[in-house]
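Hi R.,

As promised on Friday, here is the backbone we talked about, encoded as structure tokens. Could you run it through your design pipeline when you get a chance and send me back a sequence?
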């Protein structure tokens, strides 16, 4: 908005007739050589530095604000991405915890209740197989 106002004011200033100047030689209605400006041209010369400084400040302010907004937007996008990844990780961990719990419960339901019986039967079968192998290889 400020830039628009400034441009409007500069356009109004340029709508006037441009400043005039004339080159004088020595002894031509002046005691020395020089340049004679009318009031509009004098005002332009005196204000050009102020105008250029203000224009530079406005441009600089605009560009800095634009970069700040772009940076904030990029930062917000990274924060959104980070939050999405954290949420995805949390859901994955929750899913794996649930799966582990279900598998543990399933395994406990399928395990035989008479573990001592299975352990004894396994030991007897193992001892019998070992004795049988011993007899088979020692007979030769």
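Update: got your reply. Pasting your designed sequence below so it's all in one thread:
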């Amino acid at each position: 908005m400020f830039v628009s106002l400034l441009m409007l004011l500069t356009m109004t200033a340029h709508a006037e007739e441009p400043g005039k100047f004339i080159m004088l030689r020595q002894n031509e209605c002046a005691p020395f050589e020089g340049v004679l400006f009318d009031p509009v041209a004098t005002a332009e010369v005196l204000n050009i530095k102020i105008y250029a400084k203000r224009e530079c400040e406005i441009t600089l302010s605009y560009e800095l604000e634009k970069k700040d907004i772009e940076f904030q937007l990029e930062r917000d996008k990274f924060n959104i991405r980070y939050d999405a990844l954290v949420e995805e990780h949390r859901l994955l961990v929750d899913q794996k915890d649930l799966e582990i719990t279900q598998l543990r419960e399933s395994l406990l339901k399928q395990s035989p209740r008479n573990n001592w019986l299975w352990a004894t039967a396994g030991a007897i079968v193992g001892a019998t197989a070992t004795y049988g192998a011993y007899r088979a290889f020692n007979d030769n």
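One thing I noticed while checking it: Residues 11-111 form one domain.

Thanks again,
M.
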